[in-house]
User: What shape does this take?
Amino acid sequence: MAYIHYQGSDYLLEEGETVLDGLLRHGVTNVAFSCKAGACQSCLMQTAHDASPPLAAQRGLKETLKSKGYFLACQCRPKEDLTIQTPDEEGLSCLATLVEKKPLAPEITLLRMKPEAGFSWRAGQFVSLVHPEDPQIIRSYSIASLPETGLLELHIRHMPQGRMSAWAKAAALGDSLSLRGPAGDCFYLAADKTVPLILAGTSTGLAPLLGIMRDALASGHTGKIFLFHGALNADGLYLEDMLNQWQHKHPNITYKPCVLANGQDIVAEMKAAIASLNLAKAQAYFCGAPEIVGILKKAAFLAGVSSQNILSDGFLLAPPPR
Assistant: This one.
């Protein structure tokens, strides 16, 4: 067992307990977190006195962050005593200004934000927004726009008691907030422009898939591109007109919206559409609810897609307000 020294107090961790769980168990409330799965990077903390966190706690972080002692508190299980501190926001975050806002569906809002100069990203990655009134509230959203636009396009789904989505619903043009990132490896990678691309997701899992499609088209991709978008009901499907226009404009695009509540199975739709393809070199991208992402990954692998060509981001919900 190890002690964590944080803000002048010592906290004993139980065997195998993470820094985040230990601090929460001891009643420490001024720590930010969201997914608790090492995906969103909301729980970033920093070691003090040049101490080194376990390597597993830095998986997926940029080298610049690793070199400064940043780590994911939800993945950090130290074997020795460790002194930690909240991260220095300078150099970790940048400001972004809201320049466009519009509804996409009854519970989904599109935000376009202009980040400070020097912020770079790949379409399909995600950024973490820091709530302007409570920096402990950090939520991650995928990027649907190309960097050439200079604007981050995010699709925000409104959640019951969702504090960040409530901010998004009430935000006005010109409002600004801090963002972290980008992070994530779910972006267009095809060196061969003729390979099939399979993109499938649910709800706002469309956002990164949209970004990947935009990147592929801008890169001159000529291979087949299949997009499957699922929702529990018709209200959850959005941008259908635009995607249908893309399908008519680009002969290599096949767009399949799926209403899951009506018995349509997004996995069955995917299998039927790709059954005739040689999938040995295909690339697959899956985003949305983790349980559906897992099913899609398995289905693609069994259909012949190489595991190294399957990229995914599961959208994990933040826990209810403390």
